[in-house]
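#structure-requests
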Amino acid sequence: MGELPINPIGRILKNGGSPRISEDAKGTLAKVLAEYGENISKHAVLLAKNAKRATLKAFDIELALVLLNQDLPSNFHLLNTGSKPFHIFCFVEYFTD
C-alpha cells in the first residue's frame, strides 16, 4: 500500500474545522484513507473485469461504493455508461456476503 502525502491530509483536516492538527493525526488519517481507497479500488476492478474492460472507469468506483453500502457525496451521481444491467446483479451476492 502506498502512502498518501501528508500536506493534503492536513488540509482535509483543516477544512473539517480543526485549528491545530498533530502529525500523528495526519498520519493516521492518511493510513485510513489509503486502506479505504484500496478496498474500494479492489472491488471496482472486479466490476470492470466483469464488464470485460481493462480500463477502470469512474462508474466502477461509484458502483463499488454503492454495493459496499457506502454513501456517495451528495454531488455525485452514478454515471450512465450504457452497461447491461446484469453486470450489477452479478456482484450483488459477492458484496453482500
